[in-house]
Design brief:
binds calcium ion, mainly beta, Immunoglobulin-like, single chain, Jelly Rolls, 20 strands, elongated, about 45% strand, about 0% helix, 7-stranded mixed sheet
Length: about 325
């Protein structure tokens, strides 16, 4: 049976684009706060922000739901980042990240808020220092380690590899015969020092060793993870810069998250020249063939491992460099 009915011509068809006629939002209603080492309103800091140790929290409250865009850009066109939504409020954290490499840098920048059917609001500001993602809000992510003392796990001393514990909460070294060093020649795009693991064996092997962060010695990490706004593995991304010597054809990067929900690994054959940012959702980490579903807590038997391995074939020599290990919420560090 087929039913026929006529449409009421006054009935709204499709979503309403413009806000209601009495909607009003002015530049003074937009809140832009500096968050981090030197918190305060951007307007009270001469519209200047150092992205070394700080970021911006951009907030707005509308009385109704509408479409919005926040477009952050370097005045010289070198970097841009767009946040979009359809909601009755905005609460965005930004730390100098862009949609693609390179990041924002010291110089002149601007923020444009576009609201459906309204004139855009433009705020010019100055970036005083290049971003380092220190003190990022857990709603944005967690910088685990950048080997320059900005992550939640600081290294003991710049350039020095020392796996002793104590105040500095350095980490573990299970790379019994491998050389584990902190280097700064040919740095990653994140700059400064990075982790280097290299080894050679008389017989071919799959596994050379692991260095990382041990929950036995750093239970504080559980409290840091607790602040994440979600524990769904498909909403959390792991980002890390990786580089390796291409004369060793079978080097692989092997990342491990061993948490209270199980031990999960992510392996990739290291077959590219130079530094590359690997960004994968935590669902790419697998226990056997099972992808991580929920990101677990961190207890005494938990650890994060940065491992040197051989893939697709066993090898007698391998080398890998890691820098800037960071969890981001809701998407990868770069959009593209
Ligand atoms: Ca670094």
């Amino acid at each position: 049976m087929i039913s026929l009915w006529s449409c009421d011509p006054l009935e709204q068809v499709g979503p309403r684009i413009c806000p209601s006629v009495d909607f009003k939002f002015e530049s003074s209603d937009l809140t832009i706060d500096i968050v981090g080492d030197n918190p305060g309103a951007l307007s009270e800091n001469d519209f200047e922000v150092s992205l070394a140790g700080n970021g911006l929290n951009i907030k707005a409250d509308f009385s109704e739901e509408l479409k919005w865009n926040i477009i952050l850009s370097m005045k010289d066109g070198s970097a841009e980042k767009v946040y979009s939504g359809e909601s009755d409020s905005i609460d965005v954290f930004w730390y100098g990240n862009s949609k693609a490499y390179p990041m924002f840098k010291t110089g002149d920048a601007s923020l444009k808020l576009e609201l459906a059917c309204q004139d855009p609001i433009i705020v010019d500001f100055k970036i005083l220092n290049d971003p380092n993602f220190k003190n990022v809000d857990p709603k944005f992510g967690i910088l685990i380690r950048d080997w320059d003392m900005n992550g939640v796990f600081p290294i003991q001393e710049l350039g020095q590899t020392d796996f002793g514990w104590g105040e500095t909460k350095e980490g573990f070294n299970w790379a019994t015969t491998a050389d584990v060093t902190y280097e700064n020649n040919d740095p990653s795009p994140a700059g400064g020092y990075y982790l280097n693991i290299s080894d050679s064996k008389s017989n071919p092997v799959w596994y050379y060793g692991t260095t990382g962060i041990d929950g036995n010695n750093y239970s504080d990490f559980d409290e840091i993870l607790e602040e994440l706004p979600t524990f769904q593995a498909n909403e959390l991304w792991f980002n890390i810069y990786v580089k390796g010597d291409q004369s060793f054809e079978n080097t692989s990067m092997e990342l491990e998250w061993s948490t209270t929900s199980g031990r999960y690994t992510y392996t990739e054959h290291l077959n590219w020249e130079g530094w590359k940012l690997i960004s994968v959702p935590l669902t790419s980490f697998k226990n056997g063939t099972d992808p991580m579903d929920v990101f677990g807590g961190f207890n005494g038997s938990s650890y994060i491992g940065f491992q040197l391995g051989s893939q697709p074939l066993q090898s007698t020599q391998a080398q890998i460099s890691f820098d800037f290990a960071m969890i981001t919420v809701g998407g990868p560090l770069f959009d593209e």
